[in-house]
Design a protein that fits this description.
This protein has three domains: 90 residues, Nuclear Transport Factor 2, Chain: A (Roll); 143 residues, Nuclear Transport Factor 2, Chain: A, CATH 3.10.450.350; 114 residues, Glucose Permease (Domain IIA). By secondary structure, the protein is α+β, with helices and mostly antiparallel strands. The two termini are 17 Å apart. Helix 2 packs antiparallel against helix 8. It contains ten helices and 20 strands. Bound molecules: zinc ion.
């Protein structure tokens, strides 16, 4: 049963140029995923840029959203020469090139003053419709490049998104503006890997980017716990998009179809976009890769205490936030997992008494406290299904009577479980079913062809 895996990896490398510039970061990501607090924004900003040509947020409102990673990347991209932009000046080397990186609370007037650039020029520029549209509201990380001659603006440019750049230049004593388009090209790429230690390590070795692997982990987060469930020799295959511009690779785009072979399970996920471009992944049967949540962890129980950040604690008699919902029911009543997940904690937890914590998907956890007993199958590291019994109602820890204290957290932040919007987990809508099956069949064929070529290559070696 031994597999010549190193050759497979080598074969793979001949097809793909490694792009992971900083493999060390991959380990950091693994750690991050393990504690399940990575936000989506961390690996999606480039996609956002593609989809959002307009900067519409005011500087003051987006300070918190400023992402140093994105900022750095944008800066690096911007500084590269832009062959599509024809600068209508004779001797550009005589001009001073100034790159203005927008920081929180910056505005153009301040930056012009600071760099001793003519403020009259700025007010002329700001009369242009394009300038009002794209320069009035700036956000941290935006970069504006200006060529000046003795303090006078010759031209100015600002990259608006992956395809569009605003270009303003003085021609015949008058400022004119233009939005220059540089189309992107989307290339389809295959990749695959064999897991030898962690998903991230194997992906980095295969030359796949952190971003792609984060997206892959996110798609399967409901089915696979990337800390507990991963086994040596698990494999994955992925067909994904690469975004190119002017013959250069820019970034990875979306995953189109993928297969993950985990511990004997074969999982497949197919991208589907409805007419509003809403992106969701489904298995070949049309079931969502995300899983549904039950409203409550107990059948026929009554809520004895709701979610209340200012509650007076019934036993301690002090103001103490109640960050969960209490369901009272007779001792021994079954407590159910509200969704598919993994047991990440089981044990005595101070005032909580006998407690189980489940992890669902990438960033949701649920907690069940005051149990009289645990269900045998709900062992730490084990996965549980929605509705499966994980324990029984009791009053261990600090409790006035038998109940389950139930908490729901997103990225470690407590949410009111009766108000929270749980993930969409509906199967493909009937109106899209035929379209989905057409798409998925041809993608599954494409994936299988790729897998076959990989196996042939493996045999040849
Ligand atoms: Zn409670």
């Amino acid at each position: 049963m031994s597999r010549p895996k190193s050759k497979l990896r080598k074969d793979y490398k001949t097809i793909h140029t490694p792009k992971s510039k900083n493999p060390k970061r991959a380990y950091w990501f693994l750690f991050g995923l393990g504690v399940s607090v990575i936000g989506m924004n961390f690996f999606l900003p480039e996609n956002n840029n593609v989809d959002e040509p307009k900067r519409t947020l005011e500087v003051s409102k987006v300070i918190k959203e400023s992402d140093p990673q994105t900022t750095k990347r944008i800066l690096n991209e911007e500084i590269e020469d832009d062959p599509a932009i024809v600068t209508p000046v004779k001797n550009p080397e005589n001009y001073n090139n100034i790159k203005l990186m927008i920081e929180p609370r910056d505005n153009l007037e301040y930056l012009f003053k600071k760099n001793k650039i003519d403020l009259g020029n700025l007010s002329e520029i700001m009369q242009l419709a394009d300038a009002q549209k794209y320069l009035r509201l700036l956000k941290p990380g935006d970069l504006i490049e200006i060529n000046i001659d003795q303090g006078k603006v010759i031209n100015l440019k600002k990259k608006l998104n992956l395809t569009d750049t605003l270009f303003i230049a003085k021609t015949n004593n008058k400022f004119l503006s233009e939005v220059i388009k540089r189309p992107i090209e989307i290339k389809k790429k295959f990749g695959h890997g064999i897991i030898k230690s962690s998903l991230y390590e194997s992906a980095a070795k295969s030359g796949l980017t952190d971003k792609l692997i984060m997206n892959l982990a996110d798609i399967y987060a409901w089915d696979i716990d990337f800390v507990y469930d991963i086994r040596i020799d698990d494999t994955f295959y992925v067909l994904y998009e690469e975004i190119w511009q002017d013959g250069k690779y820019i970034t990875d785009g979306e995953i189109i179809i993928s297969e993950f072979n985990n511990n004997g399970r074969k999982l497949k996920a197919i991208r589907f976009k409805d007419k509003n471009e809403n992106l969701e992944y489904f298995n070949p049967e049309g079931q969502s890769m995300q899983k549904a949540f039950l409203k409550a962890p107990v059948d026929s129980a009554r809520i004895s205490s709701g979610f209340n950040p200012n509650r007076k604690h019934p036993v301690l008699n002090t103001i103490r936030a109640h960050r969960g919902v209490d369901y009272a029911a007779p001792r021994g009543t079954r407590i159910k997992a509200v969704s598919d997940g993994t047991v990440i904690f089981r044990g005595n937890k101070g005032n909580y008494g006998k407690t189980i914590i489940l992890k669902h998907g990438r960033n949701i956890t649920t907690l069940y406290a005051h149990m009289s007993n645990y269900a045998k199958a709900a062992k730490p590291g084990r996965s549980v299904n929605q509705g499966q019994t994980i324990g029984y109602i009791g009053s261990t820890g600090l409790a006035t009577g038998p109940h389950v204290h139930y908490e729901y957290r997103v990225n470690e932040v407590h949410k009111n479980p009766s108000k929270v919007k749980t993930p969409r987990a509906q199967p493909i809508k009937d109106e899209f079913r035929n379209q989905f099956h057409g798409i998925s069949q041809s993608l599954l064929d494409e994936l299988n062809n790729y897998k076959n070529t990989q196996n042939i290559a493996l045999l040849r070696n």
